[in-house]
Amino acid sequence: MHKRWLSYITLAVAPVCLASVNSEHFAERLDLASLPDGRLSAAFTFRFLGPLKHFHRGRTSPDGHTRLYTSERIPRQLASIIRAFGVRELHLSLTAGSWDQSAWGLPHSPHAFEGSRLSRSPIAHASASGAELWAWLDSSDANQWTGLTNSLAGLFCASLNRLDLTRTTSPVLQYGRESSDAVRNATLYHGMLPLEHPCTENLTPFISLLPCKAQAGLASLLNPHRLFDADYQNLAIDILTHADEIEIVMQAKSVLNPIRLDRAKGGPGKRDWSFEHCLERELKRSCPAASESFITIVQPTSTHSLVPDGFEFVAEKLLSMSVSNVTSPLDVSMRWPQEGQFVPEQQYAPAPITVKRVLLGKGQERGQIGVDIANHLEQQIDVGYNEELPWWMTIYLHTLKIEQLTLDLQSVQLLPGPASHALRYVPANVRGRPALIEAKLTLPARSVVRVLLNYEAAYLRYTEYPSDAHRGFDIPAAAVFLPEGPMTGSRRIYSSSALLSMPTPDFSMPYNVIILTSTCIALFFGSIFNLMTRELFAIQRVGISTKAE
Description:
Oligomer: single chain
Largest sheet: 11 strands, mixed
Keywords: Membrane, Signal, Transmembrane, Transmembrane helix
Mean pLDDT: 84
Signal peptide: 1-19
Organism: Mixia osmundae (strain CBS 9802 / IAM 14324 / JCM 22182 / KY 12970)
Protein name: GPI transamidase component PIG-T
Strand order of the largest sheet: 5-6-4-3-7-8-2-1-10-13-12
Transmembrane segments: 509-531
Structural class: alpha+beta
């Protein structure tokens, strides 16, 4: 009797489960682009799509009690975090190195092409050096943010749990929502860790979230020995909620150096690249769980040869090939037969917008901090500026200066008030939240806008210094938000992080005092102990006394 009821329940639930599985999709793509200095930009993108109702409302079984979550493609680890903390939107990135804006231009955005809903262009943004996390949560309770950071820290083996309230802000003018979810009452939390760089222990759980892991599909090309030998590495996860579906985008970006690899093997230093040469792996088979799998290559302007021949133009200067049915090892390569040793250009075309960190002053007590935002376009544009400074940097808002300089940073002109359309300042709390500065700026054509603030370094308690206190304290990167239109690629760029020397006590003094004191005590104690325990006896020299007689 029980077996009969069990079979009835199975038949009733099976169509619902199959419908849920069929409504989920997984797609992957690899975007390759040769950079002007001979390096190779490789961006792995893995996209999940699924019904949103499974994550926030769930479904009940026929008995009315048990919730059924039949996700087969969407990572269940992320699904449980989304449900537990009411995540409406989340962006996490771990970055090592900085994007060279002068040589590589703006961070490359994977191109969209027709005929593919899942392989449309993913979120196009740069990443700050270190770890950056921001999320929109249903609840304004700070414990939800604490639980989220701790869960992500455990999932990705990263120190994201250090993103407590002393490193968290809530920007208003920038970091707008990128999803189309109609929920308006969500709360934004944002935090940065400049020293949290990706490594193998982060890549392993990253790959474990994929349906085929590293056994098949494009993820099988993720060789940690090569990825973390690159000049720039980035791991990112973006979670977006739309009207009726949830979207999870996982990205692994790397800037490889085939010229250095060629020289290491005794070559002249060519920029020729291939999977085997740069990643030491080949694509052996496709991932059966992926409904779409593409490799796209930005066609260079110089004469080259591309192997294999299955690539087709899907956009201007964009080649694409489907790798959904790969059964034998596939090695994609690009060569420049007419080139020997690659000689990069002496000067590269500048990116439309560049940003650099500025740190002025002398001594360790006070100085000036800000950014230089350069506009190389022939027209003025409006940008957003976001700065988060730790509480131990006391900021004086009345010293804020916005200056206009020429591109060679020679002549200086103080900009009038309208250069800043909006300004928001949230002061820091001592041993609490960091200071937040948000502004909307107008960049004149072919000029540099410098934003400067005076600061004063605080005196810390000796227990608040890190173990490497004399190295300095890291300041997070500043973010600049670009408008759509004249730029191509990223909509957000970052300056480099800064290292600030703080007034630091001589931590070697206690060590020196202990050593000196211990030495003196040892010498004193040893001498006194020797005198107190030694017995003195009068020795009669028999031979001398006999001769005298």
